[in-house]
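Lecture notes, part 5. Sequence design as translation. It can be helpful to think of inverse folding as translation between two languages: the language of shapes and the language of residues. The source text, in structure tokens, appears below.
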């Protein structure tokens, strides 16, 4: 079972705060570390901060280029193949067991969705799940999605509604099993 903490050492908090500060001050913090060490550092940041950091990490690792938001073509591009990717990142923790795909913009003209869940629930058995979906596959998956910002999908006449989809990363979950069968790839190298 879980140990309950009745006391947190000042030194532990001081170390955590110093680490968070170091990471926020350096946009490339951890890019030179092994992936697990980099991802452990990202836990110190909120999703709005770690998402773009990890996206840049993946982009650099693949040799891709950043896509301008105004282009409406996703986040990163493979310049050799002229393919566009929307990137979705989640850190799986005891508090968050799901790959949370938020702000899915189906009207954008990207070729693929690259969805990555870094599993830190058992840090001693760290792993990641990389799912690669075509635009059409994501469209099909989004039949089960909800509006990202509370607007009703069916009642809204605007077809540019950002969607939200959650995939519970649990070996006993049928949807997760299906995603692994249909979309799981071994590593980033299988993208290019």
């Amino acid at each position: 079972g879980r140990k309950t903490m009745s006391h947190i050492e000042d030194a532990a908090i001081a170390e955590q705060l110093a680490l968070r500060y170091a990471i926020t001050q350096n946009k490339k913090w951890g890019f030179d570390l092994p992936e697990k060490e980099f991802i452990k550092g990202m836990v110190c940041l909120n999703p709005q901060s770690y998402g773009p950091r990890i996206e840049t990490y993946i982009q650099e690792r693949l040799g891709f280029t950043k896509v301008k938001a105004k282009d409406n073509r996703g986040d990163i591009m493979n310049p050799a193949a002229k393919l566009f990717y929307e990137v979705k990142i989640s850190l799986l923790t005891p508090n968050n067991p799901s790959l949370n795909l938020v702000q899915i913009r189906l009207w954008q003209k990207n070729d693929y969705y690259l969805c990555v869940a870094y599993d830190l629930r058992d840090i001693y058995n760290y792993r990641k799940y990389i799912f690669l979906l075509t635009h059409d596959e994501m469209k099909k998956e989004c039949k089960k999605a909800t509006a990202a910002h509370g607007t009703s999908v069916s009642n809204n006449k605007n077809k540019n509604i950002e969607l939200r989809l959650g995939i519970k990363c649990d070996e006993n979950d049928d949807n997760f099993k299906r995603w692994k069968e249909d979309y799981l790839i071994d590593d980033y190298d299988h993208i290019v």
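The translated text above is only one of many valid answers, since several sequences can fold into similar shapes. The mean pLDDT is 91.
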